[in-house]
Amino acid sequence: MSFPLLTVTAALPAVGAVATAAVPAARRTAAKWLALLVSLATLVLAAVVLIRFDPDGARYQLTESHAWISDFGVRYELGVDGIGAALMALTALLIPFVIGAGWHDADDADDRADEQANRRWRPTQGFFALILAVEAMVLVSFAATDVFLFYIFFEAMLIPMYFLIGGFGDRAHAAGEEEGAKQRSYAAVKFLLYNLAGGLVMLAAVIGLFVVSADSLGQGTFSLPELLKARASGDLTMATSTERWLFLGFFVAFAIKAPLWPLHTWLPNAMGESTAPVAVLITAVVDKVGTFAMLRFCLGLFPEASSWATPVVLGLALVSVLYGALLAVGQRDIKRLVAYASISHFGFIILGVFAMTSQGQGGATLYMVFHGISTAALMLVAGFLISRRGSRLIADYGGVQKVAPVLAGTFLIGGLATLSLPGLAPFVSEFLVLVGTFERYPVAGIIATVGIILAALYVLVLYQRTMTGPIRRPEIEKMPDLKVREVAVVAPLVALLLFLGVFPKPLTEIVNPAVEHTLSDVQKKDPKPQHPVAEHAGSDDKPAGHGGGDHE
Amino acid sequence: MIGLLVGVPLLGAAVLLLGGRRLDRSGHWLATLLAAVSFVIGAVLFASMLGEDAESRAMHSKLFSWVPVEGFQADMAFQLDQLSMTFVLLITGVGTLIHLYSVGYMEHDPKRRRFFAYLNLFLAAMLLLVLADNFLLLYVGWEGVGLASYLLIGFWQHKPSAATAAKKAFLVNRVGDAGLAIAIFLMFTTFGTFAFAPVLSAAGEASEGKLTAIGLMLLLAACGKSAQVPLQSWLGDAMEGPTPVSALIHAATMVTAGVYLITRSGAIFNGAPDAQLVVVIVGAVTLLFGAIVGCAKDDIKKALAGSTMSQIGYMILAAGLGPIGYAFAIMHLVTHGFFKAGLFLGAGSVMHGMNDEVDMRRYGGLRKHMPVTFVTFGLGYLAIIGFPGLSGFFSKDQIIEAAFGKGGTEGWILGAVTLLGAAITAYYMTRVMLMTFFGEERWRKAPTPSPAEPDVEPAAETRGAYAPPHPHESPKIMTIPMIVLAFGSVFAGGLFKAGESFVGWLEPVTQFEHGHSPVSATAVTAATIVALVLGVGAAYLQYGRKPVPALAPRGSLLTRAARRDLLQDDFNHVVLVSGGTHLTRSLVYVDNKVVDGAVNGTAASFGGLSGRLRRLQNGFARSYAVSMFGGAAVLIAATLLMRAV
Amino acid sequence: MSPINYVYLAALLFTIGAAGVLIRRNAIVVFMCIELMLNAANLTLVAFSRMHGNLDGQIMAFFVMVVAAAEVVVGLAIIVMLYRSRHSASVDDASLMKL
């Protein structure tokens, strides 16, 4: 038995969470450093996973498999394909920044605990322990190849998220602190109930899947590799209607998490009310589990149903793209604006997933990673801005560029990444998604392209209203520029955006084979160009492909 | 080597932006030096290119594979052929001169370091644009110059007007960029690649419909970047940027990228006559549109911006003519790069001496005070109106000839439009010249509110005692670039024309055919000169013989419309801005009330239901007993019924 | 006499008990009615045991009696405590269980 790398990677933050929570109340700073160190160590392990992963090797690598609940065929099975490895790396990468940016987020609550001489309530320890707990659960979700195991962690991460959203706000509510607390608890409950509802539907589908597999195979199983093998060999067959219902059960849960229009309304509340680092955790890390699971479970297990649902899903994704962008334009609150922008971006991701082309799905996977980094950059800088002025309303700003040029500059770079400026990483992924969509569904591709114009609109309007113009308010006059800690948080993200924009190759190489596997699961092939250029035949020169106008 | 061309200015931008305050005192010289270095590299490459045969001059260098995805290959690779080379020399040459000029112009600006960083960033992006060997990399440069333009237009972003203008420029350009993106999608689905060489060589195989679609999308992109109707509205506002920026980006280089794109994709347009027709129409319309707008503006930079639009209209028109016009489009582009940059630098020099006044009605008689500026501006003026023997004469004349050479009714119409454009050009440029350098010295008197815009209050500084400006010549560091550009304006055209050297140079890339003009070349030249004389004469009668009113007269309907950019902004405002605002507002309402309302409604209805159900828990033991008995009875009855059935 | 008559009697007793539980308010009476129902059940068990010639039912009846005895002890204690604290043995007065 080889070294259980994936388990260790996921267990480290879990252990760290417990350890952080156990730090005595007086040693707040120690708890922060402990959490940061644990997250950095996890990052190192995730990097090892990425390095050890061999793009040309088996589909699932670094696998571990142990019996767990043998009566129900539930196993503790981990393994990563390229998509999972990339997303594990993203998660491990972002958590140190989340911790670094949230360094003082729990201080307020801690001061209040001090005032009440309440030594048993330790908000700082709790805050960082919860973040690490989320990290651990997300990592397991990305690595789980057992449907049931995935389900458990998919649901379990809601609990720490609930406390993070509800317990720690950024005292920047327009209607006063009390109203702010009310809004916060509303957002947390909405987040929890909405996602739990989706999870419940999924649970039904998970059980259904078990029953179906027990029917066909004699022995029920949740193991993804086994299910895929049985699907491919024809051992595991299901009636069309069964497959569609099961698909829907899974898809609804993932679409809520992703979130896809019209199941998105929890996101603006949750991101608006939580502190910026927690908002990043939601949109850049936790939500990615939804789109990841669409790729891994929906397409892999239910290929026929996926094709069946594609037109509707594409339609909803297009609505998400445009609707999210238009609503972002109409927002008055910086964080809600970023939330709606994320909805638009998730629309792109889902579009890419269901375009069923290698460009689309490869682009969607890259999009997940790059959107995580770019939103983190934008949102964390927005958080720094908000913490300076104590307001989330765009109208309360203006002219910040003059007093805090570095803050404004990084904010602009984050914004430009959000609007997918070429040269920054998100451009690569967005372009791939659009190309991949256009190949099979030209009209959808063109409609989605309108989204990039709208993205420019909401980003530039936000930048113009907050950063440019004359300084109208005295609070802004005294606003300090980014501090060393804040620069240390933002600078690596910006550097990564630039680097991956110019040289995304390492990531695409890892992702490509996984995408090919997924495409073969759904039995789709890329449409061939009508007039393939001879010199370019390159990798896919199948002799049959030269017939010209093959439209399907 | 080719990579260095892009890398050097990029390095400059990075160093200046990251270097912080330490570089405030020396950064501008570093930036200028790096611009000069890339010019030298360009010149060396040019020399080595001249040493080769005409057919084997193109160089290619692949750095690394950029986005490798199954079936989709984008390389970070450069291609330097004659067309790119022309641009490289223009960009780095004019770019270096303008860096030099900016050292003087921006001397007192506290953010000078950042200004030069952006200028270097622009150079890098623009060079990337013209050196890319595939459309995706070109797209990177394409948006890169858009970003640099955004940053530089909004350089004085504490002014809301500058910030708005910058945003507008980026957004309008984004519309064009979307066109370019769709064009790339189409190429990818048609050819399976978007690298220049394979796409252009295979263009003949694709159906005409596909080629037309690609061509129209490319045209949309060109319209955005080159400020052609209907995406021209941003260029006038872009004059909010510092004047060297207007000279470099919004006159000499970036705005001509559309012409480059169309010329570069010539093989696609050659196979799509319908698309070519649209290109020609766009060019012709913009040519007149820009010229008319240029006639009405009192802001010297906006008048020049109108002129830029109109001149690029000429180039687009020429590029739309196909192989008979590509070379002339590029030739006019280069000469225009010289004289229009010179004119803008002259305008900047005038503003520099006039306390940043831009209203030409507040100028007058400046030739005595700024002799160097006057002479260089005057040479640029003569070049742009096409005074025989100067650059503009040769390049414009050939476009007019090619327009006639298109043949048929089309040829006659296009010829007439280009001639009319030449006349209007002569008119508005003479107007600018006369209002600025000749006549009464109107700046000596305090300004009064303009009757054209009676509601606008005079600027704050004029409300008190009026201190007239002291016009003075600009320092040497600003005048030298102007002098160099004036030389270019005078001689470049003749040089290019001599022995058809320019056309021959470009031929391997753009192909060349002679048009079959129904009118002889001499007749065209004569007609051009007549148009020129008419335009100059009309302007002289209006602005030279009579004193120029210090206040803009109300003017005719056309003048008033032209002052407002022929109402395009009003159209945009009514249709796009307020329409869009209403749309987003109503969508926000829908999202809160309908979509989220459904969610909250579900929650509320569950809450209500459980409220009802809770009443069953009334605390009376006996009512619980009733429900127990009732439940048991129902169960038993059900069991019995099942049994019976 | 046919054992079926015992079953009828048990049904009658059970109905009386049930009606008592539902109708009466006095906790003691309700309690006695519950006992009546229990014993009705016992009677059926014994009757069926007899009818089937199987002793299982009788054994079950013993169990029920033991459980009932235990229940009486607890139940009466509750009623007494209730009476002490509220000076009433009406079950309707003890409606503290609702929210």
TrEMBL record, chain A:
The record's EC number reads 1.6.5.11
**Boundaries of every NADH:quinone oxidoreductase/Mrp antiporter transmembrane domain copy:** 144-452
Cellular location(s): Endomembrane system; Membrane
Give TM segment ranges: 31-51, 126-144, 150-170, 191-214, 245-266, 278-302, 308-330, 337-358, 364-386, 406-429, 441-463, 484-503
Q: How does it sit in the membrane?
A: Multi-pass membrane protein
Task: Print the keywords alphabetically.
Answer: Membrane, Oxidoreductase, Transmembrane, Transmembrane helix
* Keyword set includes Membrane: yes
GO biological process terms, semicolon-separated: ATP synthesis coupled electron transport; electron transport coupled proton transport
Ranges for region Disordered: 520-552
The reply to whether Transmembrane helix figures as a keyword in the UniProt entry is: yes
GO molecular function (one): NADH dehydrogenase activity
GO CC term, one of those recorded: membrane
Short name of one Pfam family for this protein?
Proton_antipo_M
Which family is it part of?
Answer: Belongs to the complex I subunit 4 family.
Q: What is this protein called?
A: NADH-quinone oxidoreductase subunit M
Organism per entry: Streptomyces diacarni
Automatic annotation (TrEMBL), chain C:
Give the keywords, sorted.
Cell membrane, Membrane, NAD, Oxidoreductase, Quinone, Translocase, Transmembrane, Transmembrane helix, Transport
> Which Pfam families does the protein's record reference?
Oxidored_q2 (PF00420)
The superkingdom of the source organism is Bacteria
Q: Which residues cross the membrane?
A: 6-23, 28-48, 60-83
Q: Which GO terms describe its biological process?
A: ATP synthesis coupled electron transport
Documented EC number(s): 7.1.1.-
Mind telling me which HAMAP family this protein's record contains? NDH1_NuoK
Name of the protein in question: NADH-quinone oxidoreductase subunit K
Query: Which source organism does the UniProt entry give?
Result: Streptomyces diacarni
| Gene from which this protein is expressed | nuoK
